[in-house]
Every structure is written in structure tokens, then in C-alpha cells.
Design brief:
9 helices, four-stranded antiparallel sheet
Length: about 280
């Protein structure tokens, strides 16, 4: 055969075979999974080695400024009110002899309204004796430092030889109690301390133990301790003077019965003065 013919036959056969294989590959009965393409790993590019960090220059030490003490804020200081100076006192004399004139000056300064009731002679000795008697629950009837004129004691009859005191009797003591209670306690205490040496001399003359100050504090305590007066109590008059019909009331001390006769209000005022004076003398 001619060579061209042979070549044409080979081409035709190869085309037919190729067609058969193509159609067979599209049939669902001849489905073959194609292997996934293998991807060859690509070698990573070598990264350049990092350059060592450049050493930064160390910062120069900064000197910290020394702390500066802050100036304190000004504090307003309240100005103290000036204290008024204490008034001058009438100075006590050195001796008991001839001291009455000075006593009168001191009483005038302390309680001017009381001067009219002073008995003129031996004032210091009389006051010391009165205080000593009060400390013994007694009342002086002689050698009193004051002479206080008052109205007579009045009673109202309530039966056969029985009486009751008239409530108007209390007002007889209003004036002198008011004068005493108005004495400034601090001034009275200052005078007491100033004149204390002279008072102690007069007390020594009595020849008794202890001190005048001790007796004075006892007298103030005895006055404060008196109970309320028995208002409307029955009185009798066996002799010249009236007495309580109740033996228990009549057995009370002379000091207690004298303070009862002052009346409730006057007695409380006098007790308040005694209490305040005692506290002032203990405090200072």
C-alpha cells in the first residue's frame, strides 16, 4: 500500500479509539474520582535574621528637687475677751483692837443696806461667836452682831389655849433675808479669805479646838440641812413664849426652829445663799 494511505488509516483508527474513550469517561457507570492534585510544598523563603537591638543610651539621672515645706495657712485666733479686774477689797486690819471702823467699811462695800443693823462694838468677835453657835445648832440671844427690828409674833386661836402662827409673820424677815441673799457670793468669799487671819485670831480667843474655817463650814452645812417648816402646826403657850404642841417638833434644835419661823420662801433663799457660798469656798 501506498504510505499516505497507511498514514490515513492510522489517523482514522486513532480518532475512533479516542472518541470511544471520551464517551466512556462521561458515563455515570464509569465514574472514577480523579486524584487530587498533589501540591508540593514550597520551601519558605528564609527570612533575614533580625538585627540585634541597638542599645539605647541610658538616660542621665535627673536630680529630684528637694521638697519644700509648705507654709501653713494662717489660722485665725479668737481674741480673748479682756477679763475685768476684780474690785479692790477693804483690807483687813492687823489687830482686833479698834477694827470696828474697818469692819463697817467692809460691810458697806459688800452689803451697804446691812450697815444700819450692825451693833457698834466688837464686830469681829460677835460674828465669830455667832458662827460657832450656829455650828452647834444654837442661836445667839446676846452679843449679836446685828440688831434687826421686826414686828411682834402673831398667832390665831384655834381652840382652848391652842394657836396657829399667822402666815403674815413670815414677811417680818423679808428685808434682812433679801439683803443677805443679794450679796455676791464671789465677793463674800473674797472678803472671807482676806479677813480669815483676823477671824482665826478671834476664834482662838474662845479657847476651842479646831479652826474658825471648820466651824464656819459646819454652820453653813447645818443651815442647808434644815427640813421644810411645819406649816399650820399647833402651838401652845405654857409660859411667855409659844411652843409647838407636838413634842417632836418642839424637840428640834433652836437653829431649826428659828429657820422655820422665817417661812418657806425666806428659808429657801437663805439656804441657797449658804449652799452657793459653801461651794465657792470649796471650789477656790
Amino acid at each position: 500500500m501506498n504510505g499516505k494511505i497507511i498514514l490515513a488509516i492510522l489517523v482514522a483508527i486513532s480518532g475512533a479509539v479516542g472518541y470511544v474513550f471520551y464517551t466512556s469517561s462521561q458515563s455515570e457507570w464509569n465514574e472514577v474520582s480523579e486524584p487530587e492534585p498533589v501540591v508540593e510544598p514550597v520551601a519558605p523563603k528564609a527570612e533575614p535574621e533580625p538585627e540585634p537591638p541597638k542599645s539605647e543610651p541610658k538616660p542621665e539621672p535627673v536630680e529630684k528637687p528637694e521638697p519644700v515645706a509648705e507654709e501653713p495657712e494662717p489660722v485665725e485666733v479668737a481674741e480673748e475677751e479682756p477679763v475685768a479686774p476684780e474690785p479692790d477689797l477693804v483690807q483687813a486690819p492687823d489687830s482686833l483692837a479698834g477694827s470696828d471702823a474697818t469692819v463697817k467699811q467692809a460691810v458697806t462695800d459688800l452689803a451697804q443696806k446691812m450697815v444700819r443693823w450692825l451693833t457698834p462694838a466688837e464686830q469681829i468677835r460677835k460674828w465669830v461667836l455667832t458662827v460657832d453657835l450656829l455650828a452647834s445648832d444654837k442661836i445667839p440671844y446676846k452679843h449679836t452682831p446685828v440688831k434687826y427690828e421686826k414686828d411682834p409674833f402673831l398667832v390665831l386661836p384655834t381652840g382652848d389655849k391652842t394657836y396657829v402662827a399667822d402666815s403674815g409673820n413670815y414677811s417680818r424677815w423679808n428685808e434682812i433675808v433679801a439683803v443677805v441673799s443679794e450679796i455676791p457670793v464671789q465677793d463674800a468669799a473674797r472678803y472671807y479669805r482676806e479677813w480669815s487671819p483676823l477671824l482665826e485670831k478671834a476664834y482662838d480667843e474662845l479657847g476651842k479646838q479646831g479652826s474658825f474655817h471648820e466651824r464656819f463650814m459646819v454652820a453653813l452645812a447645818k443651815m442647808r440641812a434644815v427640813s421644810e417648816p411645819p406649816v399650820g402646826a399647833t402651838l401652845v403657850r405654857p409660859h411667855i413664849f409659844y411652843q409647838y404642841a407636838d413634842p417632836e417638833l418642839e424637840a428640834a434644835s433652836p437653829l431649826t426652829k428659828w429657820m422655820w419661823r422665817l417661812g418657806p420662801d425666806n428659808m429657801l433663799e437663805l439656804q441657797d445663799f449658804a449652799r452657793n457660798l459653801s461651794a465657792e469656798l470649796k471650789y477656790r
